[in-house]
Structures are given as C-alpha cells and as structure tokens.
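Q: What would this chain look like folded?
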Amino acid sequence: ITTCVELDDNMICVDETTVFDGYTRINASARVVVEAGDVIKVRWADEESDLDSLELDIEENGAYPVGAWLTPDPVLPNGVYTVTYALNGEVMQETAVEVTGVTPELVDVIACESEPEEGVCTPRTEPFDGAQPLYFVAEFTGTTSSDTLTAQLLRDDAVVTEIDGALSRASTLSIPISFVPDPMLVGGEYTLKIYLNNELAQTLPVTIENPASQVIGVITCREVDENQACTDPAEVFDGEETIYAVTDVVGMTEEDEIGVRWLFGDRELGSLVFPFEQPGSGSVAFHFAPSAPLPSGDYRVEILDDGEAAAMAPFTVESTAPPALTPVRSAQTCREISADYECVDPTTVYGPSDTFYALLQVIDFQAGETITARWLDPDGALIEETPISPETDFSGALYFDLMPDAPFPPGEYAVEIYYGDWLVDRLPFTVAE
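A: My prediction, written as structure tokens:
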C-alpha cells in the first residue's frame, strides 16, 4: 500500500507521503491480483474508531491498482490513521499515516432556547430568565482527547460560574454547555468566554432578565445553618423547642415584602412582614420560639409574598408539657351562680346535699375545642365528667355543676378542669356535716 497527495487516472499514487496536514485528502493505492467474485474492502480508522470504508465486488480476473481516500470534513484532527486492505474478509496489508499541524478551532457559540439534544439546539433570540438554566452549544473542528474546554460566565469582569472538561477526537464537535442558577442570576449584562486549551477562543454577550419574584415552597426544621438553609428537617415538635421555617425565594427586589404567619387551627400565634433588603434569591429562615409550652395538635406555617400566602407547611406538636395557650383564665368554686354568670358566694366548703358549682372565665374558646370538668371523691374516684364544646368561638363565663342524687359523705373532694387532654386547674373543696 502506498499513500500520497494525489491519485492519477489509473488510481496510482503520485507524490507519495505518509505525513498529511489534515486539510487535504489522504489517498491510498494498492496493486491487487484478483479473480472474478472476489471482494476487496478498504477501511480507514483513526486511533479511536473506524472512519470510512470502501467495498469492491470483482467482476473479472486480473491485476490492477485499487485506490481509496479519506476526505477531511472539514478537517482531520492530528494523530495516526490506518488504511487496511482486506481480500474476501482477510486482512492482506495495513499501513499508517500521520496527520500533523492541525490547530483545533472553536467555530461558533450559540445561545439555545432550550436544552440541546445531541449537540443541536434552537438559537435563542430573547434574554435568559435568571431563575432558569442557561444553555449554549459550542462548535469545534479538529479536536482530540488532549484538548480542553473552559467556559466562564462573567459579570463586570468577575467570574460568576465556570465549567471545564476534556474534548474528544472529532472532525467536527458540538459541545452542550449549561449553567444552572443556584438559585438565581441577577438580571443584567453578562459575558460568556470560551477557552480552548486555556486560550481565549470566543466571547458572547449574554443578557439575563430578573424573573418574576416568587416563593418556592417551605419546610419546617429544628436547625438552620449560617446561610439560613435547613439542616434538620422535621414535622413533629415537642411544644417547647424553637421551630424554624425555611423558604427559597427568587427574583426578590427592594419593592417586595416577605413574611410569615404561624397558626394553630385558625388561631394566629404570631406573624412578621418585612421588606426584602437584599435583592436576589436564596433561602430565608423564620423561627417561632414558644414563650411557654404549646399544646399538642396540628399547626401550620404560611409564607407571605407581598401579604399573600404563597406557601404552607403543616407540622404537629406532640407536647409532653402542660399547654400554655389555654382559653381558661380563671376558675373558682361557688355556692351559687347568678343569672349573669357571676359567683354569688365563692366557697370551698359545701353541705352534703348542696349543688357544687365551678365557674370559669375563658377567652378565645374555639369552636370544636373541649373543656371538661371531672368531679372526684375523697378517694380520687370519678363521680361525674362533663365536657363543654362550643359551636362557635366564645369568650366569657361558663360553669359546671354537680347535683347529688343522695347526700355526699363528708371529706375532701376536687374538681379538675381539662382543656382537651390537659389538666389546666384543680379546685379542691370540702364537704362538711
């Protein structure tokens, strides 16, 4: 096999050489002796893969030259190439040539409308959204696996983000490049710089617009780090620990307000709204530190965006301490209750046949909640249990009574007042002769 710059009309090599520049066709010629029915196959390959092949079906016996060539499209990268002649499936001869002097080039950089597929994308004509990924395609020629790519996104000559990696061997190569905001790039004018083998190859101006401000979810946590990110997510708390709520925001400006509202049922426990002093995106943490233990139950936290609830997370309190948020403000035993629900004769001593009264003052007693009076005898045994559960929210006075079916024996009695499952007060009283 001979290799050359040119083949004549008889497929014989002219100007033989084994070194090529990568921009001109590589030609090969071999003299073969064949018979009708033979099959000759010529195969071209580089260091990594097969590139091209030619197959000839022989119709007549004879001896003649067979020419073949490998055409740059648009260039052959530097390296060693082989041409192999096979007869009827059996390799008869192989030779190698070298391509040198090719300079890999960056041909173009394209901003993409969406994520490229197999290195192909629809060119973008509008600015990028600062909260969405930025996609580009860089087109190269004459690259090898020893070539490297570095892509930098800069604003005001400062590198915002950077990616790098090795290229592959190819005549033409389309490399997808993507930058994923974390969580947002502030709107403005940026520059994309592409380096090939650490040399600046091309720059591309990039315009990014601020996205519409938005709140992205909320989670409850026990702990947050110095960046206000949640480090210990939780949905169940003990009623005494501090509860954190962490939300991610994007596109916030100085005109936006963000806030939080903590709720137990429909009762608001606390809220906070403030202007967003540091425009941009990131995590924002709020906390609720109970001044006294919270009662067990279902709670929720709402994140407010310009005063409107934008995200919500439920959480549960399983308290092991008495509740602090009880509607019972006072309780006392009385001998009689007036028509205006006032204690006519406060007392802790009754006769065996008296009716026992317990008068309570409650504030913000919610519909569906329950206050229960449990009347206990001197041995602590339950005499009677009476629950009250309002149909609508209620504040004011309410009372419980215990009327004896027969005289009560003398002794020390008590009425226990429960809010839900929690004992909130205990009123001892005496039955005397």
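DSSP finds no helices and 33 strands in the chain.
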